[in-house]
Design goal:
Largest sheet: 6 strands, antiparallel
Low-confidence stretches: 5-17, 203-210
Radius of gyration: 18 Å
Strand order of the largest sheet: 5-4-7-2-3-6
Number of strands: 10
CATH class of the largest domain: Mainly Beta
Order of helices and strands: EEEEEEHEEHEHEH
CATH architecture of the largest domain: Beta Barrel
Number of helices: 4
Shape: globular
CATH topology of the largest domain: Elongation Factor Tu (Ef-tu), domain 3
CATH superfamily of the largest domain: Translation factors
Strand content: 25-35%
Distance between the termini: 14 Å
């Protein structure tokens, strides 16, 4: 079972040192996903090859007040499928990185980063089941996985279930694409939404993850024992 939190990988920061490789990227386009979330399409501005795996993240680097700071944003793209890498960023109140990327960045801007990293990757061998728990922008690395699993037919005999919590449907990142996958792959992929503030929704759920409701849902997709 894979689980991602509501605080996207953008919340991760660090002060890595040493002879690490730095990368430079150019924003080639910007797509609004929800009122507070954007996807940035990137291209390398340093002529170096692009190498990452679905589920990994890109540590963006900025110098603020003379100090280097970082935030890690997950790739929402799949390298075997998408022509350009993308990162998806949700604005965090008072977040200096996320507000800059969501509200101020534009096509043509340059970004600096460390090399792609992260261990939230698909296993080498096909599992019997894949169950994902995601909340808010925690869907981003899962979305990268789903692209490979569904669009590229990776692990074709493995059923995939997604449990996805958000405030309401208008703030559910990638909902349109996820719903398309549910219709396209009905025998293999399912998604259950948990919407805490959706008006007149039959998917309403105001409780936290660790509830009998969620446990029962997960058990339907996992073998006994």
């Amino acid at each position: 079972m894979f689980q991602t939190g509501g605080a996207q990988k953008s919340g991760r920061s660090g002060n890595l040192t040493g002879m690490e490789q730095k990368r430079h990227w150019r924003i080639i386009s910007k797509k609004q996903e929800t009122p507070d979330t954007v996807t940035l399409h990137l291209e390398p501005a340093d002529d170096l090859p692009v190498s990452y795996r679905p589920g990994q993240y890109l540590p963006i680097i900025r110098t603020l007040n003379g100090r280097e700071e970082r935030r890690a944003y997950s790739f929402s793209s799949c390298p075997e499928l998408d022509n350009s890498p993308t990162i998806t960023v949700k604005r965090v109140p008072n977040g200096r990185f996320s507000n800059w990327l969501v509200q101020e960045s534009q096509a043509g801007d340059l970004l600096r980063s460390a090399a792609p990293a992260g261990q939230f990757v698909l296993p080498e061998k096909a599992p019997g089941h894949l169950v994902y728990l995601a909340a808010g922008s925690g869907i981003t690395p899962v979305f990268s996985h789903l692209k490979k699993l569904l669009e590229l037919n990776h692990f074709p005999k493995t059923p995939v279930a997604l449990f996805y919590a958000n405030r309401d449907s208008a703030n559910t990142i990638f909902k349109k694409q996820i719903d398309q996958w549910v219709r396209k792959f009905p025998a293999r992929f399912s998604c259950t939404y948990f919407l805490s503030r959706e008006k007149l929704s039959n998917m309403r759920c105001t409780t936290i993850w660790a509830t009998p409701c969620l446990k029962r849902c997960c058990c339907r997709h996992l073998p006994a024992g």
